[in-house]
Write a structure and sequence with these properties.
The complex is a heterotetramer of chains A (414), B (270), C (296) and D (365). Chain B has 270 residues and is an alpha/beta fold. Chain B has helices at 48-55, 78-83, 101-107, 117-121, 126-142, 158-171, 188-205, 216-222, 240-245, 247-254, 263-269, and strands at residues 10-19, 22-32, 37-41, 63-68, 71-72, 86-88, 176-180, 208-212, 225-230, 233-238. Chain B is built from eleven helices and ten strands. The chains are: A alpha/beta (414), B alpha/beta (270), C mainly alpha (296), D mainly alpha (365).
């Protein structure tokens, strides 16, 4: 009884304390919202919302590290709009609820979002981002996210990458009209997006797509590959996790299928080269990317690889993740640079469309952001596995955009 | 306490119960006359509890019929049997240990009350509960549980628990009461007290009572009629005097003429 | 024809691995009436140990170490945690295993991250040809080894003191206790066995053609849960049947995914549960589970 | 017993005081704290509603369900579909949001009813794993029923509006100088719904159905011998718990302002389970406390990771906040089950022995 009374008193006391202390601050804060958040005379703060503890913690850390390499470079070169860039990082653990909480908490502190990772997270946040007129860079290549000026999808989208990949296989003579192509894809944005591309390309090239949808947790892809084998496919397109792609390559080899395996941009991890799948990967697997590889023999790639090694020692798990996050940071700085006199959220959105020819020679083909409904580029590059190059992959040719890819209409009309 | 219904007759006709090929009850037939207290005795494994479970619908009857007041209850689910005015207690006490005695008794009013989940959620049916709580308190007082109504059942003494089960069965306002070893584990004074309660309940409420019991003192003192089971079959059926003198009973289980309250006999039978 | 044989054999191999995991569920359930929700992390822990040590001490020694480690983990969980809870509170025990799973998974995911750790098994990368049928060597090894393992387990249950005690305590817990069976040892033994079975299955799952150990390796345990339920949680034979049913169903659904597309894509994960619910509707305790005799 | 009841009354006065004070704090909070705290509160309250349903199902009736996430999803998508407009690749009925919310709850109830052939027949762990199947089935449907669910991208959620007042950022309301956006106005909405859900749940548990459920949990045969129709009761309580989950789903939809398909996973089901276990089975207050704990712990850990010892902030090389939260979370579950199986409610009961009349601990005879 006594305890309850004390508790009651304490609660009343707490309430009145809050009334006195809190009242003014929130009302005040509400009153002084004229200055853009995250911008001071000396710094511009950008948000980074990553998975640092969940299933994609590795990717999240890589992106964060690569962003930091770029920020360091930018700041060393004098910053943007006479201000230094600063990152505010929050972890969402791939949990949309955590992401919303983290967003709510960091939102008053940042001008925009340099990078957000994770489909469910973007899904949970996109309406909020739109409502607040913010600009957010995304780590995804889903063409379904095009058409929203608040979101930046950097590079060729999954569907366009896949179209380019199939076109490349046909041009190389690995595939001809009438052949079947197996497509193993994850359920969700990557898979469905890529499938849209492969179906388009197949229709144009006279190929037949044999689809096999998989779950991200599937570990043994024997049955899927065997199904493709009995469908007598001449090539396999894979959009899965790196481990699953490795499994596909290994199973296919085990099953005696000597067919090329074309992997989507996110199907490779450096550590796969230490596993039993390494020979199969080296022999049959190639990967598509709208971005350059760290293992490329270009000055920009060598410079970035050196900066990375300098800072973090060993090669990253995801080479494309490093290039993407690095390029995204440079791009964001470029956009900021176009609106120095209006460092606000709407100003940033306007400046985005002004970027029409952004490129990092040797790392990134030219990108055009003037129309949010169009992919910023339709060029992709085919990469091959090589144990001896930095991070395990190297380009097998230049960036190219096939005629099919140019002709293709992205689904962002709606 | 007043009686509302006439005591029913229970007829068990050629009832058999099978357990994975074994015949636990084999053509059991007997009749319990309205308003009597009827004991079922027999050695362990004779099928006594099986019989009660068959009567209350817990076990499926392989063949035969069970009639309560001329209406067949064979094959009905336990809760349907309850609706025919049949209530029972269990040999191993079945109560909610963390619930108070009062709440345990109130469960007995389940079939007599109506308020379902939706109504209860909306706070309706409180009046109904109040009316029934009054009646439950009366029954608790009759059973000598008034002092422990607010205590969790788990904290009650063994004798109180046995009486709680008995009182809860009365809360169903049954016409036929089935008791499975109502005094097992009680001391002599407690047993006598519960036996008195059973008789008093029969008289006051006009019940028909069927019970299984090993305590021959209690059986002989309150039973109007006794059915003896062994190996799932009826050995004999009749008044206490008849059973006491039945040669098969004597030779098969007793070895000596049965005396009321004979400890040796009780031991032999239990 | 060739294709049918391949489907059957790979389904069989996958099914046997599920069966091993399901057996782990069943044996723990038989001994403690609890579903071990930490089983997924047992699988992952064991293969992680194997993958960590095999480059240094060789595959065979690593497997032995992994088996010992997972067995020890099972024992530790049982001795340090479960034995402190009232054994009759089955739900509480199940929740406890969820807690254990949360901690172990957090630790292992943190350590493994997104890496794929090679297992270093000698059969990695090898395939076998039987006429036109091509199969990974690991499938053949699974099909041969797992039945041997199961037979060994069955022999253990039949002939060793622990097995007898285990069976007695399942028949009648109190009776067995009175007869001098040490329930503690039965339960501890079951947890050790479950750990060992988990690793054995995990090695199969992480073997070629799977590239190695990743955080997702443990999730196979969740797939084996319906297998254990289909057979009946307290039936060892049922676990094997359940595992095979799920394994073959999964392979078959993948094979015919194209013609099943009217049911939506990605049916493979649902099919196990659909089969399970259908079977439960028909037999609420699974195919071979002991029916609870209703006795209050 | 006038003496005891007087004692109880005397015990209630300070408790009422505490309750009033707590209420005052809860009502005043939106005026003072930022969106981070308010949204955390919204998630916690949404979870609390679902947890109350589960504590009735598991705590009172002893029916284990791992399918709670499925019914939460039904509520979320039911509301999004019924209230939403067609367009952008998804269809919707465009019903008034309040009506849509009520119908979404009923829809979850209907889904629970459709599952009754299973839920009325099984018990314990078998029901738990059978209902786990629903989560996977639900996941499959979410991905494939695109016109309704929007597939992996989810769909926008129409804010709730009652009598022209919209619980969104669009409502141009200022209270004491504080602009009332979605978080602020929804805070009150959620408080009312959670309070109502708690009251209804308490009534059910204390009344006739609650007593029948608890006896059924302790002994199905005993309950059926009291005239309780076991199958019907199991089905009914499953429907009730599904409706609670549906309501939680509607609240979740409103809190996110968008449907997020990946949220409705096995992980969510397990979280609900842990809420009711940690809170104390069969206790409404415990379920709420458990929900608050389970929802806020990881959010707070992530938020304050920088200031905790042994834990590094985002991007650091050591143990990160979320992993640390997982450790604490798992450890709390383990310790709770071992030390205090009755959960937070029993802990509170131990502090206030007067209220021991309704202990929350679930045990079998």
């Amino acid at each position: 009884m006594h305890k309850s009374r004390t508790l009651g008193l304490a609660a009343v006391a707490l309430a009145s304390a809050l009334a006195v202390a809190g009242c003014s601050t929130k009302a005040e804060r509400a009153g002084t919202s004229s200055a853009a958040p995250g911008v001071s005379d000396s710094t511009i703060k950008l948000g980074v919302l990553m998975d640092l503890s969940g299933p994609f913690a590795g990717t999240g850390k890589t992106i964060l590290d690569a962003s930091n390499v770029a920020v360091k470079e930018i700041n060393a070169a004098g910053g943007v709009c006479d201000r230094k860039l600063a990152l505010v990082t929050r972890d969402h653990g791939y949990d949309p609820q955590k992401a919303v909480a983290a967003y709510d908490e960091m939102d008053p502190q940042v001008l925009g979002y340099l990078n957000i990772l994770g489909t469910p997270v973007v899904t949970a946040l996109r309406d909020k981002i739109e409502a607040k007129d913010e600009l957010a860079g995304l780590t995804t290549f889903a063409s379904t996210l095009l058409g929203d000026k608040h979101l930046i999808v950097l590079g060729a989208t999954y569907d366009i990458q896949t179209i380019n990949g199939l076109d490349w296989l046909v041009r190389k003579g690995e595939l001809r009209s009438g052949d079947s192509v197996g497509h193993i894809y994850l359920q969700g944005e990557i898979g469905e997006n890529s499938l849209r591309g492969s179906k388009f390309a197949a229709g144009k090239l006279g190929l037949k797509i044999v689809g096999q949808q998989i779950d991200p947790t599937a570990t043994d892809l024997t049955s899927q590959v065997n199904a493709l084998k009995s469908a007598k496919v001449k090539a396999i397109q894979v959009d899965s996790t790196p481990k699953q792609a490795a499994s596909v390559a290994a199973v296919a080899q085990a099953a005696g299928m000597e067919v090329p395996i074309m992997g989507g941009v996110s199907t490779f991890a450096t550590s796969l080269l230490t596993t039993s799948a390494a020979p199969a990967l080296t022999e049959h697997y190639t990967r598509l990317s709208g971005l350059g590889a760290l293992g490329a023999d270009t000055a920009a790639a060598r410079k970035l690889a050196a900066a990375w090694t300098d800072q973090y020692g060993k090669a990253p798990e995801a080479s494309s993740g490093v290039v993407h996050a690095y390029a995204m940071t440079k791009l964001y700085a470029e956009i900021l640079g176009k609106t120095c006199e209006d460092l606000t959220r709407p100003g940033l959105l306007k400046a985005r469309s002004a970027v029409t020819d952004f490129t990092l020679p040797g790392l990134l083909p030219p990108q055009d952001f003037s129309d949010p409904a169009e992919p910023s580029s339709r060029e992709a590059q085919v990469l091959g596995v090589d144990k001896d190059v930095f991070a395990g992959v190297k380009p097998l040719g230049d960036f190219f955009a096939s005629d099919l890819a140019k002709e293709y209409k992205v689904p962002s009309a709606g | 306490m007043t009686t509302t219904h006439g005591a029913p007759e229970l007829r068990v006709e050629d009832v058999s119960v099978m357990f994975s090929g074994l015949r636990a009850l084999d053509g059991v037939s007997f009749t319990v006359r309205p308003g009597t207290i009827h004991a079922v005795i027999g050695p362990n494994g004779a099928g006594k509890t099986t019989l009660l479970n068959a009567l209350s619908g817990i076990y499926r009857v392989a063949s035969g019929r069970i009639m309560v007041d001329g209406q067949e209850v064979t094959g009905l689910r336990p809760d349907r049997v309850v609706r025919r005015g049949v209530a029972r207690t269990f040999q191993n006490i079945v109560v909610s240990p963390v619930e108070s005695t009062l709440d345990n008794l109130m469960v007995g009013r389940h079939r007599l009350t109506r308020s379902g989940i939706a109504a209860t959620a909306l706070g309706l049916g409180r009046g109904e509960q109040r009316v029934h709580e009054a009646r439950v308190r009366d029954i608790a007082e009759f059973a000598g549980l008034s002092g422990v109504l607010d205590r969790p059942a788990a904290s009650l003494a063994y004798g109180d628990l046995k009486r709680l089960e008995f009182a809860r069965a009365l809360c169903l306002e049954p016409r036929l009461l089935i008791l499975d070893e109502p005094v097992a584990g009680m001391n002599t004074a407690e047993s006598a007290e519960l036996a008195r309660l059973v008789s008093a309940a029969r008289d006051a409420l006009g019940l028909t009572v069927v019970f299984v019991e090993h305590d021959m003192g209690v059986v002989m003192s309150i039973a109007d009629r006794i059915t003896v089971l062994d190996f799932g079959k009826v050995v004999t059926d009749g008044t206490p005097e008849h059973v006491r003198q039945h040669p098969e009973v004597i030779s098969a289980y007793l070895g000596a003429p049965m005396e009321s309250g004979n400890d040796q006999v009780a031991e032999r039978l239990s | 024809m060739t294709r049918g044989v391949e489907i059957l054999l790979s389904g069989l191999s996958l099914g046997l691995l599920y069966a091993l995991i399901a057996l782990g569920f069943v044996i723990v359930f038989k001994a403690t009436r609890t579903v071990n929700f930490a089983h997924a992390s047992f699988v992952l822990f064991g293969v992680w140990v194997v993958a960590q040590t095999s480059p240094h001490i060789g595959f065979a020694a690593a497997v032995a170490l992994g088996l010992v480690a997972a067995g020890t983990l099972g024992l530790a969980v049982e001795r340090l945690l479960l034995s402190r809870v009232d054994g009759r509170k089955h739900d509480a025990l199940a929740i406890l295993t969820i807690g254990v799973n949360v901690v172990l998974t957090a630790e292992l995911s943190w350590r493994i991250g997104e890496r794929v750790l090679p297992l270093g098994a000698p059969w990695d990368g090898h395939v076998v040809h039987f006429g036109s049928v091509v199969l990974p060597l690991s499938v053949i090894i699974t099909i041969i080894t797992v039945p041997l393992l199961i037979a060994g387990l069955a022999a253990c249950l039949r002939h060793t003191g622990w097995g007898l005690a285990m069976r007695a305590s399942i028949e009648d817990r109190e009776g067995a206790a009175l007869a001098g069976v040490r329930l503690k040892r039965v339960s501890a033994g079951a947890w050790v066995t479950a750990g060992v079975l988990a690793v054995a299955a995990g090695i199969g799952l992480a073997s070629f053609p799977s590239p190695g150990v990743a955080v997702s390796t443990g999730t196979a345990a969740i797939k084996a849960l319906p297998a254990a339920i289909i057979g009946g949680l307290d039936s060892l034979g049922g676990a094997i049947v359940g595992g095979l049913v799920i394994g073959i169903a999964e392979v078959t659904v993948a094979e015919y995914q194209a013609s099943l597309s009217f049911l939506g894509r990605g049916l493979g994960d649902v099919v196990a549960y659909v089969i399970m619910i259908c079977i439960l509707l028909w037999r609420p305790s699974g195919l071979f589970g002991a029916k609870e005799v209703s006795r209050a | 017993m006038p003496e005891t009841s007087r004692l109880r009354m005397a015990g209630r006065v300070p408790a009422l005081c505490a309750l009033t004070a707590a209420l005052v704090v809860l009502l005043a909070l939106p005026l003072y704290v930022s969106a981070f705290w308010l949204n955390m509160g919204l998630f916690a309250m949404a979870a609390a509603v679902g947890a109350i349903g589960l504590t009735i199902l598991l705590g009172a009736a002893g029916q284990l369900s791992l399918g709670h996430a499925f019914f939460v999803a039904v509520g979320t998508y039911g509301y999004a579909f019924l209230a939403g407009e067609s367009g952008g690749g998804v269809s919707g009925l465009g019903l008034p949001p309040l009506l849509a919310a009520v119908l979404a709850v009923l829809l979850a109830g209907v889904c629970g009813l459709l599952f009754s052939p299973v839920s009325s027949r099984l018990r314990g762990i078998y029901l738990g794993i059978a209902s786990l199947g629903l989560v996977f089935l639900g996941h499959h449907l979410l991905q494939n029923m695109k016109p309704v669910t929007g597939g992996f991208e989810g769909r926008t959620v129409v804010p709730l509006s009652i009598g022209g007042f919209s619980f969104s950022d669009q409502a141009d309301v200022t209270v004491l100088g504080v602009p009332f956006g979605a978080a602020e106005s929804q805070w009150y909405l959620f408080l009312v719904v959670t309070g109502g859900a708690a009251l209804l749940g308490r009534n059910v548990l204390r009344g006739r159905p609650g007593r029948a459920l608890r006896l059924m949990r302790d002994s199905e045969i005993g309950a059926s011998a009291m005239g309780v129709d076991i199958r019907r009761t199991k089905a009914a309580v499953f429907v009730l718990s599904s409706m609670y989950a549906g309501a939680a789903g509607v609240l979740t939809a409103l809190a996110f302002q968008r449907t997020v398909p990946d949220y409705f996973s096995l992980h969510l089901s397990i979280n609900y389970l842990l809420m009711v276990i940690l809170g104390g089975l069969g206790s409404v207050g415990g379920a709420i406390a458990g929900a608050v704990f389970v929802v806020t712990l990881p959010l707070l850990f992530s938020r304050y990771a920088d200031s905790l010892p042994f834990v590094t902030g985002a991007g650091g090389q050591g143990l990160d906040g979320s992993t640390a939260a997982q450790f604490v979370y798992g450890a709390v579950v383990i310790v709770t089950v071992i030390v205090q199986p009755g959960g937070l409610a029993a802990l509170a009961g131990a502090v206030r022995p007067l209220r021991s009349r309704r202990p929350a601990e679930a045990s079998t005879p």
